[in-house]
Amino acid sequence: MDHAESRDGATGTDAHTDVTPATPEPASESGKKRRRPWVRRVGRIALVLALVLIVPLLAVETTLRVNYMGDPADGTHTRDRDAMWLGHAWVDGRKKDADVTALARRLKDTGVRDLYVHTGPLEHDGTLPESLYPRARWFIDAVHRELPGVRVQAFLGDVLANGGPEGLELSDAATRAEVVRSAGQVLDTGYEGVHLDLEPLHSGDENYLDLLDDLRELTRERDAQLSVAAHQIDPLPHLHSVAGLVADHPKWWSQKFFGQVARRVDQIAVMSYDTARLFESTYGGYVAQQTSLALEVTPPTTHLLMGLPFYYENNPSHWGHAETVAAAVRGACLGLSRTDPDRELFGLAPYIDFAASETNWKEFEDGWVR
Fold first, then answer.
1. H-type helices in the chain, by residue range?
2. How far apart are CA 24 and CA 118, in angstroms?
């Protein structure tokens, strides 16, 4: 009874008029009206962010895919001026005569004429303990015996401080002088060149250029080679500056700085791997672009080499299914074809021997050596 009376009373005209403002539907509509401008603003911001981030990314990926299209020019194959990075085991006592014989068999007729053998790392003060390479002289002699005409260079590297708590400080003149002394030390051992790899190296580092000038004076006096491992070149103008704001490890150099380095050395090898590309086509297109950018500023008297990934990894900076040797070789051939197909001082440089697979070697030989 009380429930029925309550229901009937609620249906009366006066009662309905009194409770209408409290019903949920008008309140909900009012709430929607209040929230609508905020929702619109969020939507606009999301759209702008999508356009700013996604559209340029799609444009870059499309450009790289297009860059991978076409066929290399005739004659784009080895000039018998290739190089290879080797691990430390060759000079610390782990390798034997049989290993050198196997290496010689592998490299025969491939065009590899320079071996960058890891001999460091340098100490942070630029010095190099001789205890790190007790078998260097043995290896150099063995290579000369098994591979006549192949040069052996000492691969020296270290992490740079760049304002951090540890690392080699290029701004210190005494440290640079020690690096030069260490270079003379390995040349005294019998190495035919010095291959320098200092990372992360910021574009425009004048101290690095000063170090190269001093090293070049030394190597010329000894009739030896000076070679360096180089960062990649800005795929977009000033990208190294933007990347430097958010990362401690600069991925790229400006094309201008790359040219400044190239003019100070006998050989410059681009570390054209660890590019974060997701597809073979975009990775190959990236290598083609890097090859062209490097050729444009490398004088014909400097030997340019493009690095090949002779290893397999999967991480955000290197996807093994995309960064294949086949894609890198084809990309380098396309860049060479489009920019300077007659360049004689040009080659490819596999990195690194101890991680190489049979597939890596086959793709290198099929695509480049032929």
1. 2-10, 13-19, 24-67, 97-107, 136-146, 173-189, 206-221, 239-246, 255-262, 280-297, 325-339, 358-364
2. 76
At residue 241, the pLDDT reads 52
pTM (global) more than 0.70: yes
Q: What pLDDT does residue 162 have?
A: 79
CA dihedral sign of residues 114, 252, 354, 327: negative
* Token pair belonging to 144: 């000369």
Contact in structure between 302 and 322 (CB atoms under 8 Å): no
Place of tokens 């929607």: 32
- Residue 134's pLDDT is 98
pLDDT score at 3: 38
Nearest-angstrom CA–CA distance, 154 and 12? 99
Computed on alpha carbons and rounded to an integer, the radius of gyration of the chain in Å comes to 30
Which residues does 170 contact at the CB level (< 8 Å), separation at least 6? 160, 161, 176, 198, 205, 207, 208, 211
Instruction: Mark the ranges of the chain whose per-residue pLDDT is less than 70.
Output: 1-36, 48-59, 163-164, 238-249
DSSP state of 204: T
Cβ-based neighbour number of residue 48 at 10 Å: 10
